[in-house]
Q: What sequence folds into this?
């Protein structure tokens, strides 16, 4: 019951939060082709919110996953998703395409 | 083929364990099987629909659709598990015709199959669509599904070897831990969507020792809610849910009924 109430409040706040952070965020883009990331290394400044648009140019679905970034999100074939990241400390954050982990590997370098 | 098997099995573990536990919880209760397998069927059907509309879902709510959907579905499961435990505390193991409680568990099963199943459906669809060495990968995927079913059976038969008078206590504890783990997962999705931004620091990192993406990590993840890099909010959600269900269950237990349950078991 508690969780569902949080969810309701959260949904109501969502639009406002989105607008508030839009101001100084870093926007990045990455695409998936033949189960590989193109620009497998992304760069972003530290301590600023980041959004990454993941474009899947393959016809097959993929799951964009990063343990370090706490992201787990499905991208349908020939579609795109937006991944939102809170301000990060400097470091290297790995991510993979979970359905093709052998080839779909990448890194976000925050500095 | 082995790769596909492992990927699918990893996805199916959670649903497999949940089904096994629920089957053990409702063992011997007349009419409960229809609810449990109805839940599995409804979940599988829902998984297909979710996979079909995966793109539309992720575009919804300003790109937050997937996270909100996952969080919502998990919240439903947590509420249903809590409902079941409280209901069982009030009515005791002796009351066999607990349709309300069966329904709650059927929803839990459906939700587990829905979430894991939609990812499996997408993965298998991807194999079919790509065309290359599809037959081999597909066989692997199906073998992964079969292994998941095997895990359900193993869980069930493992649990039912526990003597009846302990089984009730064990399954009650398992359901409580399961709910706490799901609540933590729900909190994780809300944070991923930036809907809750507080308490987002990582509390510990044991991904080097026991990654929760490994098979054993997944099993622990489902059974006790193990996360290798939990955020503070996930920890709060976990502890709050655990404490909430334990307290609510205690309050719901009528004292004479406790004596009856013990008497009936012995």
A:
């Amino acid at each position: 019951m508690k969780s569902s109430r949080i969810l309701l409040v959260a949904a109501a706040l969502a639009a406002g939060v989105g607008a508030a952070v839009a101001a100084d965020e870093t926007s990045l883009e990455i695409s998936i082709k033949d189960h590989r990331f193109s620009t497998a290394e992304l760069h972003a400044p530290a301590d600023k919110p980041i959004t990454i648009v993941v474009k899947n140019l393959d016809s097959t679905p993929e799951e964009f996953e990063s343990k370090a970034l706490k992201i787990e999100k499905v991208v349908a074939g020939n579609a795109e998703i937006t991944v939102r990241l809170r301000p990060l400390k400097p470091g290297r954050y790995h991510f993979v395409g979970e359905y093709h982990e052998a080839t779909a590997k990448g890194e976000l370098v925050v500095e | 083929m082995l790769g596909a098997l492992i990927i699918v099995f990893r996805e199916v573990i959670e649903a497999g364990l949940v089904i096994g536990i629920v089957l053990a919880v409702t063992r011997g209760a007349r009419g409960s099987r229809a609810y449990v397998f109805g839940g599995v069927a409804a979940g599988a059907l829902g998984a297909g629909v979710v996979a079909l509309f995966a793109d539309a879902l992720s575009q919804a709510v300003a790109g937050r659709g997937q996270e909100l959907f996952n969080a919502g579905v998990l919240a439903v499961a947590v509420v249903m598990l809590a409902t079941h435990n409280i209901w069982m505390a009030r009515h005791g193991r002796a009351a066999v015709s607990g349709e309300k409680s069966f329904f709650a568990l059927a929803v839990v099963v459906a939700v587990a199959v829905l979430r894991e199943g939609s990812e499996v459906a997408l993965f298998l669809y991807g194999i079919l669509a790509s065309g290359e060495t599809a037959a081999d990968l597909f066989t692997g995927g199906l073998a992964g599904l079969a292994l998941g079913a095997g895990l359900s059976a193993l869980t069930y038969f493992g649990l039912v070897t526990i003597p009846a008078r302990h089984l009730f206590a064990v399954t009650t504890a398992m359901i409580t831990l399961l709910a706490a783990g799901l609540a933590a997962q729900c909190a994780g999705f809300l944070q991923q969507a930036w809907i809750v931004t507080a308490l987002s620091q990582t509390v510990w990192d044991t991904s080097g020792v026991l990654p929760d993406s490994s098979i054993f990590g997944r099993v622990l993840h489902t059974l006790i809610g193990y996360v290798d890099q939990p955020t503070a909010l996930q920890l709060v959600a976990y502890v709050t849910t655990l404490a909430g269900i334990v307290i609510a269950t205690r309050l719901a237990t009528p004292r004479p009924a406790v004596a009856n349950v013990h008497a009936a078991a012995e």
Chain B has ten helices and no strands. Chain B touches chain A through 52 residues (CB under 8 Å).
